Amino acid sequence: MASDILQDVTVDEIPRVLEAMKKDWPQHFLLHQFASILEQYHKENIQNPKQVLYKYGDFEDGVYIVKSTFAIGAESVSLIYPYTTAADYTEFSKVLKETTRIPWTEKFMFEVTARRLMPTIQQVSAAKGCDLGTEEGTILFLPPESDIENK
Q1: For burial by CB atoms within 10 Å, which of 15, 35, 83, 95 has the most?
Q2: Is 7-150 a CATH 3.40.630.30 domain?
Q3: Which domain of life is it from (predicted)?
């Protein structure tokens, strides 16, 4: 299997991600929070392969994707959180087009996505034949905890 354009961020790279995010405070808050939690998981030797941080490019202006996969009842749903500090979205578009880590043919959701990234996401999803709906200011209510499991 060929390697993906997005690579896993290793435990040794997490401090570099956190350092890079200091430049873009508070825009990067959710990514910073996720990386901090991931770092804590590694310190406590907790394996959670259902939530993964991927990176393309350098730490300062690269593209980051957080992917969380959950089973809700009989269905599997991936939540995708995309992020980049780059002002030019060429690399962001390239990642969306080339990665196999986004399940374009399955049920998934981009979560808490910056408005500035939406035109690129919409353009790529349309080219992939996806029916992408957008909502602003929406709260997603999930079923009771007993119905949700890491998949």
Answers
A1: 95
A2: yes
A3: Eukaryota
Which contacts (CB < 8 Å, 24+ apart) does range 10-14 have? 11/38, 11/39, 11/42, 13/55, 13/59, 14/38, 14/39, 14/42
pTM for this model (two decimals): 0.77
Q: What is the pLDDT of residues 70-92, one digit of tens each?
A: 777 788 888 898 988 888 999 99
CA dist., res. 116 & res. 55, Å (int): 19
Collapse the DSSP code of 39 into the 3-class scheme (helix H, G, I; strand E, B; otherwise coil) and give the result: helix
Q: Any idea what DSSP says for residue 78?
A: E
**CA atoms within 13 A of residue 133's CA, in its CB half-sphere:** 4
Q: Could you give the CA distance from residue 129 to residue 125 in angstroms, rounded to a whole number?
A: 6
